[in-house]
Structures are given as structure tokens and as C-alpha cells.
Amino acid sequence: MSRLIRHSTAGTILAVICILLSGCVLFNAAPAQAPSTLPPELTIEEHALKDGPDLEPLTLMPVEGTQEEILSKHRAKRATSARSPCHTECEASLDGHNLTATTFMTDTTEAQEVRAEVFEDGEVIHTVQLGDPCAIPPLWGLWTYDGHWVLEAARVKARRQGGAITCDPTGQIIRDGQSLNEQHGYEESFGFQLMDGKPFYFFRRRGQVWISYDGREIPLGYTHISHYQCCSGAVVNLRTSRSMVAFFAQSDRIRYYVEIGVFE
Fold first, then answer.
1. What dihedral angle (degrees, nearest 10) is formed by the CA atoms of 7, 262, 47, 38?
2. Up-side HSE of residue 143: CA atoms within 13 Å toward CB?
3. 143, containing H or E segment
4. What is the pLDDT of residues 180-191, one digit of tens each?
5. Total structural domains in the chain?
6. Is the model more confident about 159 or about 107?
7. Most confident of 40-54, 55-69, 167-181
């Protein structure tokens, strides 16, 4: 099942739902909840998956169509460069000032703790505690736009069971020194980017995943979006480019491959 959601210039939402042939139905692949409003330029393209995805190599198993058909549509836009995560030190400039975000390790009586500090021209302007050192990188980007600076970081809780360590990250986006989680009551926020020059990010509220695009909050209807995975699992992390983001999502027991962007 594939679904296209686009807000037309008249202010209506077009949802194209392809009905599966009876011989192809493997489960009740109901689409996720449709957003009630979308800005005119934004489009959501959702593809239900039979299973998976497989990781090595990354393989989609769509309910409808083929992997090549789905991935070829916006291949050129996905290839446009976006800033890669800068996991231990990030740099940006704002109104002629140099900004740097750097991680540090603090030794306590019981363990080590990670913190990040943001510097403006060498002076500390913000400090944030990021929890335990783990395989998941603590920093995920530093951006500037319209006089603002934005840092994305993961606060990690390490759980040790025998010889295994599990890393539980909670994303937090910090704008001008203010945590958006605290400011807006998010359970977490992650995946910041400048999409076609406008601020875009995901956040979780009451167990549901939403997006914020240019200050507008839009529900997606998903309960999970893959992000902050490490090692082989990193292949299913968010993939951002200049005008879109691609990701894997889940609603109830149904998995999706989704692309959101400014496609026209």
C-alpha cells in the first residue's frame, strides 16, 4: 500500500490509496493517521512494507510496487548534500561569529558522564548534560538560520546486563540555549534539518510522532521512527538532504518507508 498526501493550493489534502489485490494482502495494512493540515509545498509519500527492512544490504519489501520504483522517484533529491552528523565536535557561523559545539567527559565517583558545551568565539554560551558514554554518538548537528543557532544532541542512558550494554537515547533539540523538549512539552525531539531553508524536525508527544515544519506542528500517526541507531542498524536512520527526509516508521504492527519533502 502506498499513500500520497499533498496539501493543494485550495487547502485540501489529496490522499491516494492504492487498493491491494486480494492475492497480495498479507495483513491489514491500514495507513497511518493522515495529517489534518499540510503547508502547500510539503508532500508525504508513504509505502507500507511486508516486513523488514533487511539491513545488510538495506532491502525494502513494499506491499505495493518494487524497491527500485520507490527509490528511483526522488533519487536525485536524496543525493543533494545535507550536513552530516558531527558526533563529537560541530562548527557553524552566525552573524560573523564562530560557533562550536564540543563534547567532554566528566569523571564522577561512580562512572563517567558526557556533556556538551557550545562556544561563541571561544566563550561558553551553553552547557548540556548528555548522560552516559555509549556507542550512540552524543551530537547530531549544529545549525544556524534567521539569527538562531540549533544544536541536536542525544542524552543516553546505558543499561548493563551481564557483559552486554544497551544504549537508550532521548533526542533533544536546543535552540538559542532553550530545550524544545522543555519549552513545548515534548517527550523527545530529533532529526533537525533545514528543509528547503526552513526549520524541520520530528518530536514525540503522548507516544505519537509529529513533525514541526517552519513553526507548524503536524501529526504523522506513527508510534515509532528509526533514529539514533548505531553499528549495522545505522542504515535505517533518518536520511536528510536539502529538500527532503527519508525514514522508516511504524504504526501499530505495520512498518513503512516514508519520504517527506518539497518535491516540486
1. -30
2. 24
3. strand 139-145
4. 999 999 999 999
5. 1
6. 159
7. 167-181
Secondary structure in 3-state letters for 6-35: EECCCCCEEEEECCCCHHHCCCCCCCCCCC
Q: Which long-range contacts (CB under 8 A, 24 or more apart) does 249-254 make?
A: 249/32, 249/46, 249/209, 249/220, 249/222, 249/224, 249/225, 250/222, 250/223, 250/224, 250/225, 251/32, 251/33, 251/221, 251/222, 251/223, 252/223, 253/27, 254/27, 254/29, 254/30, 254/32, 254/48, 254/49
Of 61, 53, 63, nearest in space to 23 by CA: 63
Where does the pLDDT of residue 170 fall: very low under 50, low under 70, confident under 90, or very high at 90 and above? very high
The reported pTM is 0.86
- What range does the domain containing 112 cover? 2-261
Instruction: Quote the cell numbers at residue 180.
Output: 524544545
On the question of pLDDT at 215 being above 60, the answer is yes
Q: Give the integer Cα–Cα distance in Å for 156 and 108.
A: 16
Residue 52 pLDDT greater than 60, yes or no: yes
- C-beta of residue 41 within 8 angstroms of C-beta of residue 196: yes
- SS3 (DSSP) at 183: helix
